[in-house]
From TrEMBL:
Pfam families linked: Sugar_tr
UniProt record similarity statement: Belongs to the major facilitator superfamily. Sugar transporter (TC 2.A.1.1) family.
UniProt protein name: Sugar transporter
Highest taxon, organism lineage: Eukaryota
Membrane topology recorded in Swiss-Prot or TrEMBL: Multi-pass membrane protein
A cellular-component GO term for this protein: membrane
Length: 422
């Protein structure tokens, strides 16, 4: 659970009276654009780094290697500046998360989303207008700050604003929007790469301003969550907002539950120290290990560098971008499948199934590349290249299912450990 919040699920399992009010729908749609923005930033970088005009302007050494064709396919993109362009967003996001935790708790969810929107707009403007590598990197850092603040506040906002009976679905709405953002970025890159004057990369980076603007406007229009107001001692205001978003006057049971949850949360002293106690270590180790190993599978590298990866397999630029579009589509479809199957099949089954398929697909890819690409400069035969691409799609689909289950299990185990830390 993001820092700064407290659990609002009814301890008795009773479903509180609530309507799906327009303010809930608008709030959730606007807030979910934070996921769209994050996904777009993930997907767009791989596409623009495969565009010759972008490389020629900012990374001429890489562009020259590609034009000369003498170096290994895998070494052509070996450039620290190019790696900094991609990784700076995520390093900035990691750092910003710690500050976002404070603002989410002290200022509220709504101001934190507004801060994220402002960071996104500034970063997008710098990237789209970039004239040198410094502007490009600073823009990516600002986008990373936006990611850190949005990923902290938006899922928490969605969880707290939604009625209990649809809370799970709306929580996954954020992740679904991340995958949709990746797909949109791939589609846009595929189109802008065809612009002959060489400014397509500017359009790709600049269109990130659309979800950034929606998030900023949404943060101005939505209300603060009752949880945040109660957490900061504004009880009457919190009750009034709860009546508005639930569409009923009968909010006393839920209000009292929120007040009690806030009181219990404030009574927990040194939560991180308690979490490290021996009785909580099994849950902590499993929760952390699931997240770490899920990241180490390499799913993020696939999503960040899909067009570059397909280029190294011998695909032409259009084919590489087209394959990245299909990868994004597979990611979206598999997310939807996991939403509908997780409750029917169970978390453990899906996690095991995803792990086995990811392992098999990676082994097949490794064998083909290890045997057939002997000197690194050879491109794969068409049939083998297609097999590798299919295995990549299989890997991405399983990675999406596994990610959602890992996140769910980590939240459950983390909550269990905190509950036993008192």
């Amino acid at each position: 659970m993001p820092a700064g919040g407290f659990s609002t699920a009814p301890a008795t399992g009773v479903e509180f009276e609530a309507k799906i009010t327009p303010i809930v729908i608008i709030s959730c749609i606007m807030a979910a654009t934070g996921g769209l923005m994050f996904g777009y930033d993930v997907g767009v970088s791989g596409g623009v780094t495969s565009m010759p005009s972008f490389l020629k302007k900012f990374f001429p050494v890489v562009h020259r290697r590609i034009e000369e064709g003498g170096d290994s396919n895998y070494c052509k993109y070996d450039n620290q500046g190019l790696q900094l362009f991609t990784s700076s967003l995520y390093l900035a996001g990691l750092t910003a998360t710690f500050f976002a935790s404070y603002t989410t708790r002290r200022l509220g969810r709504r101001p934190t989303m507004l801060i994220a929107g402002i960071f996104f707009i500034l970063g997008t403007a710098l990237n789209a207008a970039a004239q040198n590598i410094e502007m490009l990197i600073i823009g990516r850092i600002l986008l990373g700050c936006g990611v850190g603040f949005a990923n902290q506040a938006v899922p928490l906002f969605l969880s707290e604003i939604a009625p209990t009976r649809i809370r799970g679905g709306l929580n996954i709405l954020f992740q679904l929007n991340v995958t949709i953002g990746i797909l949109f970025a791939s589609l846009i890159n595929y189109g802008t790469a065809k612009i002959k004057d060489g400014w397509g990369w500017r359009l790709s980076l600049g269109l990130a301003g659309v979800p950034a603007g929606l998030l900023t406007i949404g943060a101005l229009l939505v209300v603060e969550t009752p949880n945040s107001l109660i957490e900061r001692g504004r009880l009457e205001e919190g009750k009034a907002i709860l009546r508005r978003i639930r569409g009923t006057e009968n909010v006393e049971p839920e209000f009292l539950e929120l007040v009690e949850a806030s009181r219990i949360a404030k009574e927990v002293k040194h939560p991180f120290r308690n979490l490290l106690k021996r009785r909580n270590q099994p849950q902590l180790i499993i929760a952390v290990a699931l997240q770490v190993f899920q990241q180490l599978t390499g799913i993020n590298a696939i999503m960040f560098y899909a067009p570059v990866l397909f280029n190294t397999l011998g695909f032409k630029n259009d084919a590489a971008l087209y394959s990245a579009v299909i990868t994004g589509a597979v990611n979206v479809v598999s997310t939807v499948v996991s939403i509908y199957s997780v409750d029917k099949l169970g978390r453990r089954i899906l996690l095991l199934e995803a792990g086995v398929q990811m392992f098999i697909s990676q082994v097949v890819i490794a064998v083909i590349l290890g045997i057939k690409v002997k000197d690194d400069t050879n491109n794969l035969h068409n049939a083998l290249a297609i097999v590798v691409v299919v295995m990549v799609f299989t890997f991405v689909s399983c990675g999406s299912n596994g990610l959602h289950i890992c996140v769910f299990l980590c939240l459950v185990m983390g909550s269990f450990g905190m509950a036993n830390s008192k």
